[in-house]
Every structure is written in structure tokens, then in C-alpha cells.
């Protein structure tokens, strides 16, 4: 008889949520780039025709945009409605809980200044990237060109 006890059965290792989100993000980006390349070269239309689809790649994109655009707008409005007041309330509560600001001393002042500096940098980077890259601008120009003149505002 041996003193060694049997090892417990191995449980399958589960991936953490952040890893799953990152994998989903990378797979979605790769599929989006692949779809864009295939559609630009006309390969996607040929593939759809081979499988007997009665719609083109452009119709598919238009359908996806008509679904994703309102959902994206709703999502962004919900973020603005929930997250910004939550952050402001957390900051205000943090300042109120301090009581006497002089207790923090130099480290508290450095932390506050660094928070303000980094928040300002984040805002500046975001505004700069939006103004330089102009996301959605080509889509808006294409939609304006395709819209009949009597419908335009």
C-alpha cells in the first residue's frame, strides 16, 4: 500500500472575462477588416452570388448601418446619462469625505493636480483625434450624395 493519495481531478481552466472581451474585440476587428477588404475588391459580391444570396455587399452594409447606428446613438446617450454624473458624484463625495484638505498635504495636492492634468490630456487627445480622423465623415458624405435633394434638410 502506498501513502500517496490520489490527486484531485483537474478542473478545466476558465478564461477571465477581460481575456474573453479582448479576444472578442480582436476577432470582431479582424472580421471587419476582412469584410471591408473583400467588399472593396468585389470578392464579397461574388461570394454572395455563389451562395445564392439575393443581396449585394452594399445592401448588407446599409442594413448593418441602419441597425447599428441607432443602437450606437442610444448606447452613447446612456453612457453620457449614467457615467458622467456618476464620476462627478464620486469626485464630489471624495472631496467631501476629506473634511480638512490640509490633512492630505503635498501628496494630496500632487494627486489632485495629476488627476486634473491627466484628465485634461485625455480630453485633448480625444478631441484632437476626432478632429483629425473625423470618424463617420465619409459615411455622412456618401449618405448625403445618395439622398435625393427633395429629402435633404
Largest sheet report: none
Residue ranges: pLDDT <50 for 5 or more in a row? Answer: none
The gyration radius over C-alpha positions equals: 26 Å
Taken from the alpha-carbon principal axes, the silhouette is flat
Number of helices: 5
Q: What structural class should be given to the helix and strand makeup? A: mainly alpha
How many angstroms separate the termini?
A: 89 Å
Indicate the proportion of strand residues: under 5%
> What average pLDDT do the residues reach?
81
What characteristics describe this protein?
5 helices; 153 residues
Describe this structure in words.
The chain is mainly α and 153 residues long. It is built from five helices and no strands. The longest helix is centred in the middle third of the chain and has 42 residues, at 57-98. The termini are far apart.
